[in-house]
Amino acid sequence: MIGTCGFTTIDCPHDAAEIGYVLNPDHHGMGIATEAVEAVLAFGFEKLLLHRIEARFMEGNVASLRVMEKVGMHFEGYRRESMLVKGSYRTIGCCSLLSSEYKRRKAEKIPE
Question: Which residues contact 92 (CB under 8 A, 6 or more apart)?
Fold first, then answer.
């Protein structure tokens, strides 16, 4: 196993969810995380009919932010020192994608 990717939470009353992913550093830079996130987004929007999917990253984790940008997510902002990780508070960034944005991106990728 080289990593995980999937929904960490699903908020049914609001048709929203959060994606989380972790990849072994030996496999970074190969497009694996991007491909996995794209598959989870497709499932969320096409099968679960979600309206919004978000993902979070620790400030400074540029690679994770880049994955989110590659799949079309939009940066929304930071929550200052909002997560305690190994005894230190970390600032967490959030990105999201709406169903309408996902559908528009998908339509633009399909050749006519």
Answer: 56, 57, 58, 59, 78, 79, 82, 83
